[in-house]
Amino acid sequence: MAEKAQHPPGAPRYSDVCFSSRVPHPKDSADTLDTFRAAAQFHATFLNWVYTTDADFIHQAGAQGLKVQITLSPTLPDPSSEPPKRNTGRILNSDGKKVSVPWMKGWQYWWGCVNHPAFRRLWLTYIRNALDAGAHGFQVDDPAFSQIFLRNKWEDVCYCDYCKAKADSLGMAPPEIQAQSVLDFHRWAKAEATTYAGRVVPFSCNNFRGEWELFPFAEFDCGVAELPERRANSEYIYASLRETRRLGKAQVFSFANDRTFLVEKVIATVYACGGNPLVPWDVWMGSGKDRYYGKPEDFAPLFGFARAIEPWLDGYEDAFYANTQDEFRYTDVRKLPVFFGNYRRQVHAFVRARPGESNAPVIIHLVDWEVLTEPFEIFFKDKAFFKKGIGRIELLVPKEYVESEHELAQKNKDYSSLLVRKEMHAGKGNNILKLTVPAIKNSWAVLVLYPKRP
Ligand SMILES: [Zn+2]
Fold first, then answer.
1. How many CB atoms lie within 10 A of CB 309?
2. Taking the complete model, does pTM exceed 0.90, yes or no?
3. CA-wise closest residue to 215 among 135, 151, 159, 300
4. How far, in Å, from the CA of 207 to the mean position of ligand 1?
5. pLDDT value of residue 454
6. Residues 175, 69: one domain?
7. 93: containing domain
8. Average pLDDT in the chain
9. In sequence order, what are the residues at sequence separation of 6 or more whose Cβ sits closer than 8 angstroms to the Cβ of residue 341?
10. If you measure from the C-alpha of residue 197 to the centroid of ligand 1, how many angstroms do you get, rounded to a whole number?
11. 295 & 421 share domain
12. How far is the CA of 353 from the centre of ligand 1 (A)?
């Protein structure tokens, strides 16, 4: 049974296409990249995780129908400093020195103190300027602030005058007040933004690999984070997004890889599990490597498909999950609503339904994790879906890439031409339906199961 999820206000919907340009492009006349052109090529609706204070850029994005999410971080530069300086309201260690994290060694990227009034003013200035320009919400990088130094034992912090005075008044040592101070800071910032904008302003954080346990990720409504390659598999993505939903949160995953097929499978699986994959464009791949810019011919068919199946994504929640490796010895799989026969394949079935609507079509996202895909058989227990059983079954798949079709769909905001629809015929015996699904070319296929008419 699908249960209603409390989707956080302002977070991307299941059918949204999240796109990131870490900095606005073109940066100068030599830059051949163009953020808005690329966003349109992938049918983006959100512009996430952008490092900018450029009001014109934010305004222009809004005018193109993109919801913009501006990035805030503990190393925000002092306003109007050129070249950027990072001295205002910073954390001090017990020797009175400003601090930074090991991966920023030598950059003079000093971290701000959440108790320092000057840093709080700076933070609020960034928020207000972005909201004035039309920003939708914010992404906070490294939201642990001083706690990251304490928990990793990198520095003993914070000994600025404000932390010392606050700790004194509480009869505690300055490091002991940091965790609560960081939480108070994020609550204060969200409340200020909400009052200023006159609406709920969504804040997300960079919750690496989509986890919520590490401090202070649970404080945020939404995560926008990298999915590491070792977690790029269906089982992890499903479990992580199941937990996200259980907590009433939302998750955007960033994943890029040299192997296009792997990126394709992650995109399909994240959508199939109720998350949002970030379009793989402008992604850092490690020091010394070029940034990654995914090509529309590789990935626009999947994102266009997500827009085209909007009615089958929004409002739907997880109801069941099965894969070709389910264990016959432990579970009588023939009693499950969905099962497979062939353990050598790598097909995953994500069943989603509309909570409380027993006659709404049930959706099964099929993601084939094989590189060389083949036709396969899938079985349904008829009565597990609808009282009177399953009637029609439709197969929807992304259409092969044709640039002009994508341009037209984007221009008309009508994406229905970006999918291929096929009526399917299942065999039946013992209240079990057997369906042969043709090889899935672009990793992702959707079955729409309609109830049998009385
Ligand atoms: Zn301090």
1. 25
2. yes
3. 151
4. 24
5. 72
6. yes
7. 18-313
8. 95
9. 377, 379
10. 28
11. no
12. 49
Determine the distance separating the centroid of ligand 1 and the alpha carbon of 177, expressed in angstroms. Answer: 10
Residue 246 in domain: yes
Per-residue pLDDT tens for 346-405?
Answer: 999 999 999 999 999 999 999 999 999 999 999 999 999 999 999 999 999 999 999 999
Number of folded domains in the chain?
Answer: 2
CATH number assigned to the domain comprising residue 307? 3.20.20.80
Q: What's the CA gap between 179 and 306, in Å, rounded?
A: 40
Q: Give the single-character DSSP code of 74.
A: T
What tens digit of pLDDT does each residue of 307-330 get?
999 999 999 999 999 999 887 777
Instruction: Compute the distance from residue 247 Cα to the ligand 1 centre, in Å.
Output: 31
117 and 248 fall within a common domain: yes
Q: pLDDT tens, 52-94? A: 999 999 999 999 999 999 999 999 999 888 899 999 999 999 9
Distance 140 CA to ligand 1 centre (A): 19
Gap between the Cα atoms of 250 and 49, Å rounded: 15
Tell me the CA–centroid distance for residue 449 and ligand 1, in Å. Answer: 58
Is the residue at 365 inside a domain? Answer: yes
Q: How many angstroms does the Cα of residue 37 sit away from the middle of ligand 1?
A: 43
Which of 343, 317, 451, 352 lies closest to 393, judged by CA?
A: 451
